[in-house]
Design brief:
This protein is an all-alpha fold. The chain contains six helices and no strands.
């Protein structure tokens, strides 16, 4: 079936959220960046749901620039770096997320699932029990 390409709505990230080394941030800044990236991932997924459902992807084929998958890869790389920094500071056991670790956009809301996990880690970092 022919597929159409719809224009994507891509939430912008602040310079701190998009460029800074997460390992160099304070706990408060790391938590803020994690929440910002998580919010952007959820907003992107929500705004572009029709395109997500409309795109085909063949494994091992190049990802077309400007596609849903291309934008996801940018968020994914950033989310993994932030998540790894959160894990290190929390001393928490490593857990997997299909969207982040398996590079799989499976399920109803894979980016939201990954974003919710980032938010949870950030909240744990800022928990008064720490």
């Amino acid at each position: 079936l022919p597929r159409t390409h719809l224009p994507l709505t891509i939430p912008a990230l602040s310079e701190t959220a998009s460029l800074s080394d997460p390992t160099s941030l304070s706990n408060e800044d790391l938590a803020t960046v994690a929440h910002e990236v998580a919010n952007a991932m959820r907003a992107f997924e929500t705004a572009n749901k029709e395109q997500f459902e409309n795109e085909w992807r063949v494994v091992n084929d190049p990802v077309p620039k400007g596609s849903y998958r291309d934008v996801f890869e940018n968020y994914r790389q950033r989310a993994i770096a932030i998540r790894d920094a959160l894990w290190k500071r929390l001393g928490s056991p490593i857990s997997t997320s299909l969207a982040l670790d398996a590079d799989t956009l499976a399920g109803v809301s894979p980016m939201t699932d990954a974003a919710n996990y980032l938010d949870l880690l950030a909240r744990n970092l800022m928990s008064p029990k720490r």
